[in-house]
Amino acid sequence: MSDLDKALIEAARIASGSSYSPYSDYAVGAALRFSDGTIVTGTNIENASYGLALCAETVAVAKAMADGKRGELEAVAVTGPQDRGDGAPITPCGRCRQVLNELAALGGTDPRILCVGNDEVREVQLSDLLPHAFGPAHLD
Ligand SMILES: O=c1ccn([C@H]2C[C@H](O)[C@@H](CO)O2)c(=O)[nH]1
């Protein structure tokens, strides 16, 4: 794995340290890398009204876009807790796939998604996770 990808995964892990997840105790970290090298991170933010939880990936996209970031989204790393489940790589939920797709479409990329597990990093493309996506082009 490249040093750039290792750094992206590390950034996601560090971000998960700020997770506010008292209800699930499931800290997720996400890190976005743009083609200019910029990294934007996010972590999950839960709510006493459980269904209002914000996922790490969605928070990262919101942070980037709120700061005016509109570049080419190159890669995304997602990390979860290492002591839960079977340690399989964590994959973005359905809503996060759609949210990521919007940012990716703006920059015209199909980003690599690095799904981090305990013993493995599974790399997929966003288009693998969300084939035939609905996006901004449909509204032209
Ligand atoms: O891709 C995912 C999947 C889940 N979560 C969060 C939502 C909730 O806070 C916790 C348990 O579902 O993990 C994310 O942040 N990203």
Describe the structure.
There is one protein chain. This protein has one domain (3-128): Cytidine Deaminase, domain 2. The mean pLDDT is 97. It has helices spanning 3-16, 56-66, 94-107, 126-129; strands at residues 29-34, 39-43, 73-79, 112-116, 121-125. It is built from four helices and five strands, in the order H-E-E-H-E-H-E-E-H. Helix 2 runs parallel beside helix 3. 31% of the residues lie in helices and 20% in strands. It has a five-stranded mixed beta sheet with strand order 2-1-3-4-5. The longest helix has 14 residues, at 3-16. With 140 residues, the chain is an alpha+beta fold. The structure holds 2'-deoxyuridine. 2'-deoxyuridine binds at residues 21, 24, 26, 28, 44, 46, 53, 55-57, 92-93, 96.
